[in-house]
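URGENT: need a sanity check before tomorrow's submission.

F., can you look over the Galactose-1-phosphate uridylyltransferase record below? I want to be sure the sequence and structure line up before it goes out.
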Amino acid sequence: MTRDIAAPTASRLADGREILFFSSDGPPAIGVDRRDLPDRPTVPVTTVRRDPTTGDNIIVAPARQERTYKPPRTMCPLCPDPSGLSSEIPAADYEVVVFENRFPSLATPAGFEPPTGAGADPLRVERPGLGRCEVVCFASDHDGSFARLSRRHARLVIDAWSHRTSELLARSDIEEVYCFENRGEEIGVTLPHPHGQIYGYPFRTRRTASLLRTAAQYRAENGADLFEAVLAAEVADGARILVRTEHVTAFVPYAAKWPVEVHVYPNRHVRNLAELTEAEADDLAAVYLLLLRAFDAMYDAPLPYIASWHQYRADAAEGYLHAELFSIRRSADKLKYLAGSESGRDAFVTDKTPEAIADEVRRVIR
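Structure tokens as predicted:
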């Protein structure tokens, strides 16, 4: 049922990091990265510490303080550079590019073997920050956005996400693969060039663990799959459905907590992006573009948002591929700040009903 994804064209940057070119028009012309970059570390430079009061895994990555911060356009590291002197991408042009982050939160140096055995102090649990962090450049146009991509180009991004998901889930040092996009300065974006990221975590994140725990409990109590039940209930209700096609459904969830929040599910139960068929991937690209274009049409300026993809191993007991798109903008001139209740207690207070959110998004879709 799954589709064949063309292998990318692989190359290396000046410091040895891998870079992958995904193209729909044959192999791209790749130049040579001529920058004088420092050698890559031979041991992990980040750590994962366990919060003894919550059990949360906290990634400690002080080197990320040195990452590129709002450079002038002429020095954008994500624009193509055929000279190989000023950019991460030594090419005259490209469609979709994925490369290892130069300032990663998680990285496994080649040949590194993590120490065995646990520490004796349960209050001071720390391990190397192994894993992988990648940057996904959606297009070479510095002033573009995902919403402005063609369907064919958006589908190529989905194929790139799918390829990387399969490759990373096959690694023994990675437990969870997370594809996401941060859009807008209000979200904290420091490079405006259209791009996203992929994190390969060495642990199961708190959010994923919570979803799977709730799904297991629902199955035990109701004898059914939680995510299938949620999708069926939203379709039956209809009040918050935004788009429903042959292969994809998009809706505002019953208990939406963000000022704008949309969930996107394939209609067939799959665990991750790599399991989609050709038709499902095409449909997903079209619906995803429709939603992002609607986000840009809600106010006078493009909506800042986070696009968050939930996916799981093919043999996982629970889990259903879906995307969550959400924004902190609650009106044309106001942002939602995560203040005392949200930040201090994870207890969200929303200013809009989910039904009102659905009406707002439907209005701009139409």
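My own read: DSSP finds six helices and 16 strands in the chain. The first helix runs from residue 151 to 169. If you see anything odd, call me.
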